[in-house]
Amino acid sequence: MSDALALKDSNSDARCLIIGASHAGSQLAVNLRKNGWTGEIVLLGSEAQLPYHRPPLSKTVMAGSKTLDNILLRPEAMYASNDITLRLASDVASIMPEQKQVVLAGGETLTYDKLALCTGARPIKLPLGDGLDGVCYLRSYADVETIRQQLEGKQRAVVIGAGYIGLEAAAVMTQLGLQVTVLERADRVLQRVTGEQVSQYFTDLHRSHGVEIVCGAEVTGINGQHVVDSVHCADGSSYPADIVIVGIGVTPETRLAQDAGLRIENGVYVDEYCRTSDADIYAAGDCASYPDARYQRRVRLESVQNANDQARIAAINICGGNAVYQVTPWFWSDQFDIKLQSVGLSDGFDEAVLDGSLDPADAGGFVIQYLRAGRLIAADCVRRPKDFMALKAKL
Question: Which domains does the chain possess?
Answer without folding.
Answer: 3-121+251-318 (3.50.50.60), 125-248 (3.50.50.60), 337-394 (3.30.390.30)
